[in-house]
Amino acid sequence: MKKILKDRFFILGFFVVVGVVIIIFRLFNLQIVEGQQYYEYSQRGVLQERIIKAPRGRILDRNGIPIAVNRMGFSVQIAYVKMSAEERNRMIFNLVQIFEKNNEIYKSLLDDYFLYDTMEFGPKIKDSQDKAYSWAKEIGLKIEKNVDITPQYIFKLLKQKYELSDEYEDKDAAKVIKVCYDLQIKGYSIRAPLTLIKDVKWETVAEIEERHHELPGVTTDWEPFREYIDSFYVGHILGYIRGIDADEYEALKSKGYGYNDLIGKTGVEKSAEEYLRGLDGKRTIEVDTNGRFYRNLSYTPAEPGKDVVLTIDLRLQKAVYESVEKNIQRIREKGGEGNFGDANAAAVVVLDVKTGEVLAMLSYPTFDPAIFLAGAGNKEAQQKILELNNDSVNTPLLNRPIQGLYAPGSTFKPLTAIAGLEEGIIKVNEIIRDDGIYYIDGMKFECLEYRHGLGAHGNLTIERALATSCNIFFHILGKETGIDNLDKWAKNFGLGEYTGIDLPGEYKGNRNSRDYKAEMFHEAWYPADTAQAAIGQLFNQFTPLQIANYVSSIANGGYKYTPHVIKRITDYDGTVVKEIEPVFEKIPVSEETIEAVKKGMVAVTNSIDGTAVTVFDSLPYKVAGKTGTAQTGRLNESDNGLFVCYAPADNPRVAIAVVVEKGVWGSNTAPIALDILKKYFELYDIKNVSDSAKSDEVVFTR
Amino acid sequence: MYSVEKFQGVNLVKHFDYFLFFAVLILSGIGIVVVKSASLVMPNGADGSRMAMVQVAAMVLGIVAALVLSSIDYQYYKNFSFILYLGSLMLLVLVLIFGTGEQFGSKSWLNIAGITVQPSELAKISFVFVVAYYLEKINESEEKIKPIALLAVFAAIPIGLVLLQPDMGTALVFIFIFCIMVYVAGLSYKYIAIGFLSSIPVFLLSWFYLLEDYQKNRIIGLFKPESGSTTYTFNVLRSIMAIGSGRLYGQGLFQGTLTQSASVPVKESDFIFSVIGEELGFIGSVAVVLLLTLIIIRCLYIAKTARDKFGSYVVSGICGMYAFHFIENTGMSIGLLPVTGIPLPFISQGGTSLLASFIAIGVVLSVSMRRKKALFEDE
To answer: Per the structure, how many domains does chain B have?
Structure first.
């Protein structure tokens, strides 16, 4: 005995045995004595973690009119519950019948592979037997050797796989199979239920809850869904949300995005994503073995996204839309020389010249982003989305004000004047003579009036040249100023440069320059090119927003603002989180130059030798403007019509750019600007300018 | 010479320790099935489908390693023990720099070419060798001070590195192994008593100055698990519920309600015992406990009858490692011991851990084959 006590290995062994005895004793206590109690408790103690979807922030117009909001909708989940295949199929069949009764459309992954109604393979495997074979193999269908893989055969195997007995008619079996297939592919457990269908009707939810004994494992939950109001008018600005795609998910998963999340794809929904997106909450609940709620364990509330207030005035935006639609119709019907009746698209930008705020911005034809919110099961909406994507004539998804590229035509002339004045080529009252014809490098340039037998303009100052839009004057002035200076000043005014607007997908466009020509055509720059560039032709391609912003910079005395559509970000209770302050850059242009050009643009509206009269007759203040007509370079197609203006002329508040594709003449597009100005001054009543001027005649040249 | 005769006298087939080897095979076989069950449903839809496969691969590799190691005389390992030791120190340093696994509480994993390894698992074995080497030196040589000092230094370095991860549980394993080996080497009870008494102020000091709140909570939670809402007690309550609900026969393999709803946290490794308890019941749990006990007792017996002191110390150290892992892991699963991230030997998911367990068994088998008794019988 003493020897044993001295044996240190024995002592260690003794301690091990004591430890093991304690463990076994404890196990006996837990499993045998209290086992039944623990068993019963465990049967309802199944944990589920449910995400509480955070409502996305609202999007409002500048006056607080809601454009994008949320509403509560219901979804149906299914959790894994221990039961036989037969019981499971019965449960699914019950559920499918409830869906059908309430016209809920159930979209299955199986639809891509197998369609029972037409008894054919789906689009993913339609074209090859091999694909059909490997798909069937992958999902675990037992294909016999040397058998033709027909849809009928696959259907038989699917019935076998999901153990559908003969009591189901084939058409019912097909419906059950669709759900079974999704359960298999997407996976579901009692801990992580699978969402089968989203945004169902209240009736569906009521029936599921009422009949829950027949539907073990099926539960309902609610979550917020996006809803757009009057979104048709602001489609391109608003943008839309859709399911996150693989690339976005990879890039954003570290920020907490799930593979099922919705994300802004275009417009403000995209550019303000970080504010709009809320923080999902989480609740841990205990459910019983039928997946039914038992009690809450923990709860982290969702944090709603921030609201975004736009600079857009929805009332003005609607007026813009209505005017564009009306005038395009008018231009198409008007006829006349060079009018092929094909005007079909337009872009309008209305800027606040003192802040750079975008008050209205329309891309016509527009689209309603609401159709992008429709579920995958909504065939009508899916068809519409397809049409939007495939319409290559009208390209309705193109956001023309920032993505449409247009030659500015004569609306470029004020810039040529600025460059000439600033570079000291011409003085404010200096005269250049227009003889009707002018040769550069042996190339003949003609003034349009002269060609039409109306005689040359003769001696012109900048003011008169702008008023009459004399081509020869600007050919000569431009040639003297030189392409490098024209390029420099166009750049200074942001033409052919990103404006930095807070919308995704802005285009840069391009400017006439030696480099551009060399790069694109490998040719040297000639003085004749400069003469063309001076009247806005050749390679100039600007967005309507750039053009509007350039007019705004002239109007406000040389300040280039960064245009923006987001005015402020607020919490859901209205507390301001962030106010977007105006960002501007002073263009190094002298006051004299600006005044001279402004005089010219005002003179446009006061000239007696114009080609269009009385458009702005009814307005109680002066408007300064400029028309432009740009050839598209395509035969049998009308030219693009442009019109830019700002008002009131003596104390500018808004700058407008209107482009009508195939609008034939710049003057055709002016009535749109008139409608906008009328609406603007009706909404923002300005007493201080109302008596400064009465019925001015506005006269248009090209 | 006596020793030369011994070296030549081993018959690899005849003297192989079949009992120990098959006990280990059965246990790890059970382990793979249980890991498969535990990884069927993972929380938050994580993918656990590869886990059982990794486990099988590690087991096959482990069996090969164990067989090869057992056929080599363990005296040769002595020569390599320092290289092994330095190598594992290097890995422990690397894991501090490049390690991953903060989400589990400590930087314990290294990612090498897509394979994650846990260096501390391998370090345990080299630790055992180095400690055994010095203990033998101390026992045999006249000069005591120098080897004792070296032993202290070499033992302290890996413990310090593991504490930096910070992995308190694994550090405790090292300390425990060290204590067992020193005890077996014959440290007088007088010193042991002094050691015990002096550990009380150390414990008090560390309680008030060193331990983080979460570590204190784990110990407090031990005495009143129903009290807190901390994750710790929650995990243990879940584990206890799962084990209890297994009753006598268990709910059946792949059938456990809590296991198959991923309701027990880290059920595939730290809390694997809850899966055994729930799905295999009292019978299955006791069977696993008894198998592990048999392996440990067998190791003690081998240590006792080893040919020389070095072999005896090495096996004692490995035995201490198994015993600590086993008792601590099951103890925490049933709420008797504080929670640490220590795996259940031969069962818990984790390739490195399983491989290390098998390597250790290979060493034990090598010692076992060359025991005194077997040789005497041979003569």
So the answer is: 1
